[in-house]
Write a structure and sequence with these properties.
Layout lengths: L9 H12 L5 H8 L3 H13 L19 E9 L4 H12 L4 E6 L6 E7 L2 H14 L3 E8 L13
Antiparallel strand pairs: 1-3, 1-4, 2-3
Helix pairs in contact: 2-3
Length: about 160
């Protein structure tokens, strides 16, 4: 089932750019910056949230300040691409709180994971759970990030 994308006009785009940068910007300031009334901005934001264009409003934490000091990128190749087996491994990755992003990709590997952990000891424990005990992993390759040069989920509109 495909979801029809809502119509997004120039006002919506401007609003989306602003809330993507700072979703706690006061409504009055948003209204001034997009040159709309306060009620019009509120209605638009409500519509954009209800339609799924805005998927959520969150606070972005500093990993260093909360003791999550290691970012790991993992390429995973599976043994079986039978749909039930793929669904099972997807569910395993979805259910793991340390997996920040998971991509099912084309090419020589099947999944790319972005994982945030306290240290390598936590990552080693996680590899046992995700890749060894869970099954259906042919091989995985680990890349440890030395520096977070850019981290963003912002979209260029």
């Amino acid at each position: 089932m495909t979801v029809e994308a809502p119509q997004i006009d120039a006002f919506d785009r401007h609003l989306l750019e602003l809330v993507q940068r700072d979703n706690q910007m006061p409504m009055r300031e948003l209204a001034e910056l997009v040159n709309l009334s306060l009620p019009a901005v509120a209605r638009r934001l409500q519509r954009l949230r209800k339609s799924g264009v805005i998927m959520g409003d969150r606070s972005v934490l500093s990993p260093d300040h909360v003791g999550i000091n290691t970012t790991v990128i993992v390429n995973v190749s599976v043994l079986s691409e039978v749909i039930e087996d793929l669904d099972a491994i997807r569910q395993r990755f979805l259910g793991c709180p340390q997996v920040q992003q998971c991509y099912y990709v084309t090419g020589d590997i099947d999944f790319i994971l972005i994982i945030a952990v306290k240290d390598m000891k936590e990552y080693e424990k996680l590899t046992r759970e995700l890749f060894f005990e869970g099954g259906n992993v042919k091989r995985f390759m680990t890349f440890v990030a030395m520096d977070r040069v850019k981290v963003s989920l912002d979209l260029k509109l």
